[in-house]
Records
---
Amino acid sequence: MENDFSALALAGRLLLGGAFVFAGLRNIANAKLLTGMITARGVPQAGPVLWAGIVLQTVAGVMVAIGFQAAYAAAALIAFLVAGTLMFHNFWDHAGPDRASRINGVVSNVALAGSFLLVIANSL
């Protein structure tokens, strides 16, 4: 039973961390658009903030995936999710379908944060 749980935990870490590595690499390709979006939200130094976020999500994603300091990486990704939610999923500023889409983003990020809490709990 212990080996089955370990295999499932590894698969979960690979999927969860891998999704953030993929997103980080995808964000490199969309850096110009994302910088504009962050600037529009009033974030100072939008370019450096974006690149710090890309590095964080990519490196911490790898760390979660391979289980290296996974609890610290998961905590960093929770902070990343909070910041990203405030910057990109500001449903309170929107109405109609756009509001619904942004609310879905918030719910997804809450679920991801829950997954990272499980990574942290499993690492203790």
Note: The two ends are 19 Å apart (CA to CA).
---
Amino acid sequence: MKKVIVSEKAPAAVGCYSHAIETGNMVFTSGQLPIDAETGKMPEGPAAQAKQALDNLKYVLEAAGATMDDVVKTTVLIQNIEDFAAINEVYATYFAEPFPARSCFEVANLPLGALVEIEAVAAK
């Protein structure tokens, strides 16, 4: 059985998807763009966008009754691999050891011109 998770703190979906789906003790989030839910805008620069995307991820996990400490896997999509160091520096402030498994990919484009998008799998 699956349960739809929606966070009022995270920006509304920009397509036909849920913020997250919970099944059993697992939470699968959609990719979180760096959109500020209050303003509808994205901050400038890769570090600021990484922070906003991770804040949105945290809000979605909280809506599912999970925390960043419950994350077992992330996927990070970035528009320019040269932004990896700046994004990684911010990323490291949201997780503690043992760090979740992670994949990171450079992609040609992200929705709405974002520089970063981050999704996660958590085990509660």
Note: The two ends are 16 Å apart (CA to CA).
---
Amino acid sequence: MKSTFLFAAALLAAQCALAAPLRSDHPIVGTWRFELPDGSCHEMYRIRADGTALITSAAEVAESEFEIDDQPDGDGFYGSNDKIVKDNGKKDCTGEITQVGHVIKAFILFHPSNNMFLMCQRRDMASCIGPFVRVRGLEI
């Protein structure tokens, strides 16, 4: 019985360790809105300092755990990895259903105001979507 409890406690600790906390003043912490270029749909990202996020996109509601560099590289990009850990199985703005376990590797580039960012596939402006705009009054 004691070994079962220790195994369960170790498993829980390992799961909690997946989401690494961020410094409280990291520019990614907050609520962000991304609207499709045609205005037909938007996504909301509530990014918490504990390394987790709540994402809504059309009918989809998902939770993720992410890592992001503490500081940008010399060109201003923050490397990030975002792993979906929960999803309600409904379609997002693209009409797709995101699978639990899906990992998104991206490079984040902030506007100097820290109130907008672009999400890029590579460390270049040609591979970016956005802007993601900070939403005030919905902080988490």
Note: Residues 1-17 have pLDDT under 50 and may be disordered.
